[in-house]
């Protein structure tokens, strides 16, 4: 869990990446050795170092969640302990090499190690993580994409979103962590709130966030196509509802919002928007 293979759930971490980078992991192992070499007369602090992981790891060991243990959320309380033990390992290593090296050499090595830790974790957070298909999949790509598009192209028109109109981008074939990252688990309330946020609706009407599901003529989730339209409206519809929308209303334009993988407009369809008039 700490050094070889992390959890598979993309929302909490880069799937499969261990909880510690290689440098911190090495210091962590040295810290465990340093703690084991200490005398038991260190009192409460020594006992705390030993019992802390014994209890906090149980959330991961006993978990039967489908997110792929070790599930970082369930063992999060181990993070400060692991960093503390790694710090003990770093201090022990510093003292160990003090007689064999100069101060400038030690400081240079410490700076290089620190820069390495920052670089590895920055790569995980800002490069490898966002590029991972599972990470893109579990953060509500479709409602966010729709909301951003509405902010630029909605022209203030009321928006009607039908059930099942937003489609999560599919995971690529053979993605090894597909089981731990289900296709869709957001509630309708979650999807609609994401659209509202990305569209900037709450910036102008913060009171709207108190009851996102209440139809107010701005961006609404309706169970079916409305019987009539009061004016020009944007209809976000699933494929099964498109023929009826074209039959009942005057549709002037059809836009398919796609997943912009690699900034290419040829990704999977996330939503279909119809410009409709009464």
Based on the model shown, name its key terms:
10% strand, 2 domains, alpha/beta, 278 residues
Short description:
By secondary structure, this protein is an alpha/beta fold. It has helices spanning 22-37, 44-56, 58-61, 78-97, 103-131, 133-138, 141-153, 188-199, 201-204, 242-248; strands spanning 159-161, 219-221, 233-237, 250-258, 269-277. The longest helix is centred in the middle third of the chain and has 29 residues, at 103-131.
How does this model look, in words?
The model has no long low-confidence stretch (mean pLDDT 88). The radius of gyration is 26 Å and the shape is elongated. It folds into two domains: 22-131, no CATH class; 136-277, no CATH class. The chain is an alpha/beta fold and 278 residues long. The protein has ten helices and five strands.
């Amino acid at each position: 869990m700490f050094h070889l293979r992390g959890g598979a759930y993309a929302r909490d971490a880069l799937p499969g990446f261990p909880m510690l980078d290689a440098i911190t992991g090495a210091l962590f192992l040295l810290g465990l050795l340093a703690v084991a070499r200490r005398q038991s007369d260190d009192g409460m602090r020594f006992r705390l170092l030993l019992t802390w992981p014994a209890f906090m790891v149980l959330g991961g060991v006993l978990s039967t969640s489908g997110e792929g243990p070790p599930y970082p959320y369930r063992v999060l309380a181990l993070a400060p302990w692991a960093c503390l033990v790694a710090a003990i390992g770093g201090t022990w290593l510093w003292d160990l090499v003090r007689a064999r090296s100069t101060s400038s050499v030690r400081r240079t090595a410490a700076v290089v190690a620190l820069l390495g830790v920052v670089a590895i974790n920055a790569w995980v957070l800002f490069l490898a993580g966002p590029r991972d298909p599972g990470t893109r999949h579990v953060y509500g790509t479709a409602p966010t994409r729709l909301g951003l598009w509405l902010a630029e192209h909605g022209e203030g028109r009321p928006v009607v979103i039908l059930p099942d109109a937003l489609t999560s981008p599919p995971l690529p074939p053979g993605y090894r962590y597909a089981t731990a990252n289900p296709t869709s688990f957001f509630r309708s309330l979650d999807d609609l709130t994401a659209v509202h946020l990305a569209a900037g609706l709450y910036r102008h009407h913060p009171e709207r966030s108190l009851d996102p599901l209440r139809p107010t003529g701005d961006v609404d989730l309706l169970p079916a196509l409305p019987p009539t339209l009061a004016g020009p409206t944007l209809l976000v519809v699933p494929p099964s509802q498109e023929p009826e929308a074209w039959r009942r209303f005057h549709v002037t334009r059809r836009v398919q919002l796609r997943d912009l993988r690699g900034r290419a407009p040829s990704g999977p369809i996330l939503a279909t928007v119809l410009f409709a008039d009464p």
